[in-house]
Amino acid sequence: MSRAKSTYHHGDLRAACVSAARELLEEDGGAALSLRAVAKRAGVSATAPYRHFADRDALVSAVAAEGYRELAEHLARAHPSPETPDDLAEIAIAYVHFALEHPALFRAMFAEPCDPAHEERAAATAAIRAYVHGLVRAVFPEAEPEALSTAVWSLVHGLAFLHLDGKLDATDPEEIAGRIRSTVRAMLTAGAAVERG
Amino acid sequence: MSRAKSTYHHGDLRAACVSAARELLEEDGGAALSLRAVAKRAGVSATAPYRHFADRDALVSAVAAEGYRELAEHLARAHPSPETPDDLAEIAIAYVHFALEHPALFRAMFAEPCDPAHEERAAATAAIRAYVHGLVRAVFPEAEPEALSTAVWSLVHGLAFLHLDGKLDATDPEEIAGRIRSTVRAMLTAGAAVERG
DNA sequence: ATCTAATGTGAGCACTGCATACATGATAGC
DNA sequence: GCTATCATGTATGCAGTGCTCACATTAGAT
């Protein structure tokens, strides 16, 4: 774990940049993230980060990739082995919670016209996709997993963004949790009603 | 309809700015939208827009508000009087289609930490909310409309963003349409299956 | 010990949002 | 019709941005 010695070379500037960027994102929001600020926080000249990141986008992508991993952990922690729709709702709550706790990071992860060729990023999102797949298989063993995974991820992801953007009230965490639970329930009972009708 | 005469005063600079901004958004993407470019396209000095917009954000919000209205029209045009889940799927397809046709606009509408106090914007999103409400009432007359509206909007919105961001393949429109149809179907049959089990 | 390539520095360019001081002219009151 | 007013436009300038390029330093291979 290379400490920042008072030497010419930093040691691990790349990692330092990512975590500095991460911090600035949390503190000041996405638009305020400048390479100069990142460099300053890393204790290095303004142009040094360019030795490790092709451009600003590459740095943001690296931070986003870290975000995907954290999101995955956060979800896993919400429920170790989900099996029922209620368990699924708890995971949905965790997803939205993550978005609201780290709004700028979440936006960096999803709301930027990012380079789809970014490897680290692609791998991290593939991991999330796989997680959702497993989740769906466990909760709805009879269903067609591909389509239902898309549905579940979309539903949860949409909930996150609508809360983030103020389209759904996001002041009280308990209220949010309640809304998500009833949203998931409503979606499922609606389907049942259609099948009956 | 004030034409841009060669006079000192423009006539309707506010509208000209909004449409110039709209054009630049479509052409070059969101990040490239600068007030200077807008002013130039409107044939006016760089700081003139500030007479009509407090800051860049206010201009973007105005464009976003226009976007909400267009989205609403686009959805209404997709199906005049939806009554079945299949009709709903067609509207979902239209929603995603709009996002993919106008990515930068859609991001401006949803993916910016916007000022929630912006009146025009709030009104426009309230209109969309009402539209979804009516849609849900028509398609699922037995359901609790509040929760199910949230569910439907979230599902569709999530689909739009996951396609926009490359998390779901968005190359072939027909394939997208097919995926959305089976996604909606999967979501509903999953609920039915749970009720049975 | 020396050479080389990786890594960091500094100056500088074109651009940005925005503030400030000033120019113009549509229009309301006489 | 004349003139004062004030919304609307212009010109200039500042601080901050991403990024490039020439140069400095030093870790590690030979």
UniProtKB/TrEMBL annotation, chains A, B:
Keyword Transcription: yes
Transmembrane segments: none
Domain of life: Bacteria
Any one GO molecular-function label of the UniProt entry: DNA-binding transcription factor activity
PROSITE patterns reported in the protein's UniProt record: HTH_TETR_2 (PS50977)
Stored InterPro entries: Homeodomain-like_sf, HTH-type_TetR-like_transc_reg, HTH_TetR, MT1864/Rv1816-like_C, Tet_transcr_reg_TetR-rel_C_sf
Known DNA-binding region: 34-53
SUPFAM superfamilies to which the protein is assigned, alphabetical: Homeodomain-like (SSF46689), Tetracyclin repressor-like, C-terminal domain (SSF48498)
Assigned keywords, A-Z: DNA-binding, Transcription, Transcription regulation
Gene3D superfamilies cross-referenced by the UniProt entry: Tetracycline Repressor, domain 2
Domain HTH tetR-type: 11-71
PANTHER family: HTH-TYPE TRANSCRIPTIONAL REGULATOR RUTR (PTHR30055), TETR-FAMILY REGULATORY PROTEIN (PTHR30055:SF220)
Record's protein name: TetR family transcriptional regulator
Originating species: Nocardiopsis alba
